[in-house]
Amino acid sequence: MKFLAKILIFPKEGVLDTQGKAVGRSLKRIGFEEIKEVRIGKYIQLWLEAASEEAALVKAGSMCSELLVNDLIEDQRIEVERCGL
Amino acid sequence: MKFLAKILIFPKEGVLDTQGKAVGRSLKRIGFEEIKEVRIGKYIQLWLEAASEEAALVKAGSMCSELLVNDLIEDQRIEVERCGL
Fold first, then answer.
1. What CATH number does the domain containing A12 carry?
2. Cβ contact, residue pair B68, A23, below 8 Å
3. How many angstroms separate the CA atoms of B52 and B57, rounded?
4. What is the pLDDT of residue A74?
5. Quick check: ipTM above 0.85?
6. Cβ separation of A37 and B49 shorter than 8 Å?
7. Which domain holds residue A38?
8. φ, ψ dihedrals at B44, nearest 5°
9. What residues of B are in contact with residue A2 (Cβ under 8 Å)?
């Protein structure tokens, strides 16, 4: 079966996010004064074959810990859905 | 009131995503043969002041079209939630 794993990766609380700071400043500069904070992470869509939704979730979790996520500074959230393709 | 806008920005279907291709190849190389496709986008968390949830959504939409998203090659999805802080 084919699944789509949607993986959100974002800086841990307390970790300095320089890209977010820069984007926040740019938004203020073009008039969005209501901005309080911006933090920038990654959104990875990952299509994979797996025997079940649980197996797909476990697999995606392994990919995160082995390659996609830096545990020291990033948090992750994974959602998996069955995918018709 | 303070809101958190969660913005997903990802490559449109049909647009070549070289970063996704590279990550897909790397995942296969370290043993994840079940990978079919990988696409990489951005996940932006944005805290802002607004009068209502709708106002926050409209504001976040403007920020996307004015700075954060390249309409030609990227799609976006925005969720807004009330935020206690």
1. 3.30.1280.10
2. yes
3. 9
4. 97
5. yes
6. no
7. 2-82
8. -110, 125
9. 36
